[in-house]
Amino acid sequence: MSITELPLLTSTEMVCCSPLLREPIDEEQAERLSRVLRALADPVRLRLLSLIGAHTGGEACVCELVERFDLSQPTISHHLKLLREAGLITSERRGTWVYYRALPEVLEQLTGLFRAA
Amino acid sequence: MSITELPLLTSTEMVCCSPLLREPIDEEQAERLSRVLRALADPVRLRLLSLIGAHTGGEACVCELVERFDLSQPTISHHLKLLREAGLITSERRGTWVYYRALPEVLEQLTGLFRAA
DNA sequence: CTCCTGTATCGATGAGTATCGATGCATAGT
DNA sequence: ACTATGCATCGATACTCATCGATACAGGAG
Description:
The structure is a homodimer.
Chain A: H1 11-15, H2 19-22, H3 27-40, H4 43-54, E1 59-61, H5 62-67, H6 73-85, E2 89-94, E3 97-102, H7 105-114
Antiparallel strand pairs in A: 1-3, 2-3
Chain B binds a DNA duplex through helix 5 and helix 6.
């Protein structure tokens, strides 16, 4: 190897700036991270999360969400449960209706892992 | 509604700063986004991606990756294929070995969708 | 209390997927 | 040409999950 082939930066510096690509994550981190990503990795849940976040007042009741899909109410409730268990939304019952609200913190944590420096 | 209850900001401004939560995405966007997230939503693939990105020189051959898991070589090859099809890594054959390299662009695009302003 | 409406849970079913062993393919070495 | 090695593909299997209808549960109305 000639002098011109010697790297000026270490491998971790030259490759990428994303923390995920800069440092190998361990199995436990991978397991936790994959749980959140699995909750997001579905087109119905992505639309639900986006609809809830962009809805007037920052919240939406299940009845409004069900109207937006060609899916049964139990199916929508199932997806909302998965989003809630992943920490992406919260629910609050007010009278007959249950309102869902987006929690942006988890998405921001993902940003921290994926972002370039 | 009294004057004090009138929102000072529109719903899209008050709720959140993430583009995903600020504007409802359509079905096609959700479908495309979910494909990338499905590729990431697995602990083995997350570790593979991280190992590749953090590896010396920014690339790793399959043989080095297989050693890190209690999984068969075909299984690792399968996961690498899914990561490649999602645009997260690329492969290059050099002699007997196939080297994989991380492509940070897709992760950065996710950051743009999830990030706070 | 009884009925009605909105939502969650349950059980079943079909689709998708993670995994493996066997095998095929490409390249290097002899 | 033959063999050995690294990797990809194939076919099978077990498991996860998306979806539904049926049903249970909670709260409001009468």
